[in-house]
Each structure stands twice: as structure tokens, then as C-alpha cells.
Structure prediction request, 383 residues.
Amino acid sequence: MRRYVLALMLCLAMTEASGDDTIRARDLGIPFDGTPGPLNAITDVAGVEVGYTTLIEGEGELVIGKGPIRTGVTALLPRGRANPAPVFAARFTMNGAGEMTGSHVIDEFGGFFGPVLLTNTVSVGDVHTAALEWMLKRRPESMAHLPVVAETWDGGVNDMYGRHVKTEHVFAALDGARGGAIAEGNVGGGTGMVVHGFKGGTGTSSRRVGPYTVGVLVQANHGLPWRLTIAGVPVGQTLNPDRTNHFENAGTKDSSIIAIVATDAPLLPVQLKRLAKRPAMGVARIGGVAETGSGEIFLAFSTANGSPGRNGEVLTLEAISDAAGYTLDYLYEGVIQATEEAIVNAMIAAETIVGADGRTVERIDHEQLQALLRDAERLNDDS
Prediction:
């Protein structure tokens, strides 16, 4: 078997995962509402850092424990490595066929005490253990070590049950995390993911909302082909009108989407809970309906306040009054818009992948998509 390893670690300095050469939805003329930040990424929220380890190795027949491997891990540090302080947070589950660790603590205390990591379904435990080890090595004196790990299912193309995401991969993603432009598509935890029958994965977007920014990072692995809607156009009905699942021999695996929402708006946990519900509407704009077997799980956090310390004190406290409903409303709108664009960015940036047993997931055809949007007068086209 010919072996090729993209596998060690796109994230070591994040140079290969910088996103500088990534094709994005707006590059194709796809229109979106709202005003993005300068990077149009979750890293537009000051302090947020993102890193990846992408594992691609082997080809041919699936042999559990050997490969082929098409997976990885994404790491997000809400305040960056230099600032381990917790953040106020809240989470929302639209459909619960999935996993996000730390949920009970987030619900109870309105925050969390560690990085956020995204990976495949079977690797949640391994990634959590590795992230905890990373935290203990960096801050052994701290009593608060609670990484948040969420997952989506990449078993269509990856030897998922081989548990190939190891401690060194998690460390590399965390140590390589940085701000700036970030890569999308077949990177990190999104390496083996599928969106509405096409190659999906990792995507991001942001919106400016007055003096504030909201950013969204998705690990997109959801939806059925004929439901795909882009810029309000039901393109899936043309691109895949026969209503068959992409992996016709793999059953109707609806899978999942994880959305992480970051903001610098000074929101309290109860307000972040409302914000955490809004990615659901962005998912719906793309044609997602949260199928029975799908896990739509969302997390929102704010970097604005010094957050609960060891004894429960709040270091600083600033909040947007509920009376300023217009401010919250526009933040909600920004999250919806950024979620929609992040999912499409994941699809546009992704590349066709050949995985276990030769299963192939095609990238959405850019030219065909542009033609459909042009016919519907929904393409920003200078030609």
C-alpha cells in the first residue's frame, strides 16, 4: 500500500494552515448579508487562536487500527495561550445525537476553564485526556482544568475506530494555535467531514455589529444533498436531484455540525445562551433540518469580561442591558449570517477526498454552482 503522510501536523507554526491561499465563498461571487470583520473569521475576535493537526495517511481497504486515516483535531483557545482565564459561556443543543464535554459545568457555572477541541466521534476521550495533560503541564498550580471537546462523525472515509488522534497531535494543535487568517475545508477535525453530500469540514466567518464582533467556527458534517441551499437558491435540487444519500451503501448517516461562537460583546451567560441558539438558524438557511441522527450542538462565549475565578468572584463585570434589545438583536443576526457563510466557506475551501475502501467525496463544483446562482440572479458577477 502506498503511504502518504500529510499527517504531521499542519499546525506546528500554522504556516501551512494560515488560510492565505484558501478559496472562499466570496471569491466566487456568492453573496452574504452583513459586514464581516477584516479576516472574516472567528479570529477577528481579539485573542482567539486556532490550530490544527490534519492526519491523512494510507489508501485502499479499511483495516481498523491501520487506516486509511482521514481525520484530525482542531484547537481553539478563547483568550490565546498567553491568557488562561476562563470565559463566560453557554451552549445550546438543537438536536442531541452528538457529544460536547463540559456541558454540565457550562450550564451550572456559566463558563468553562480550558480550550475547545473538535475531532471525530470516537476520539473524544483521547482528545480530552490529551488536552487535560497539556493544561496540567502548562499550569500545574491551577485547580480548574476542564477542556471542552466536541465531535462529528467521519467514519465514511476514515478509520475512525482505529483512534488515530494521539496525544502529540492534540499538543501540536494547541501549541500551533494562533490568530490571523485560518485554513478551512479539509483541515483539523473537519478533514473527513461531508456537508449535504459534498466535501465539507472546517469553516469560519465573522460579522461586525456596531463596536462589537461576533465570529463563528464550524465543523460541518450534516445535511442531505437535495436540501442544499446557497444564497437562497435550492442548488441541491439540481446538483443532486435523485435524493440518494452520498454514501449509498453506508445507510442514511445524517451526522452533525458543531458551531463555536465567539464575541467581544460583554454578554452574561443568560445572554450567551440566547446567542448560542442562533447558529440553528444559519444551519437552516443552508437547508439543514436537524435530522434524527444528527447532532447540532452550539457553544457561545464572550471574551469581554474577566470571568469567574477560583472562588467564584468576577474580576470585571460589564454587560449589555436587556433593555438594549436592539443591540442583542443585531448580535443574533450577525451569528446567523456568520454561521451560514462559515458552512459555505467550508464547502468551497474543501477538496475532493478519497478515503477508506475507495469512498470518494467530491468537492462541490465551483463553476456549476456559480452558473446556478447566476441564473437565479444571485451571483456577484462582474463578467
In short: Residues 1-16 have pLDDT under 50 and may be disordered.
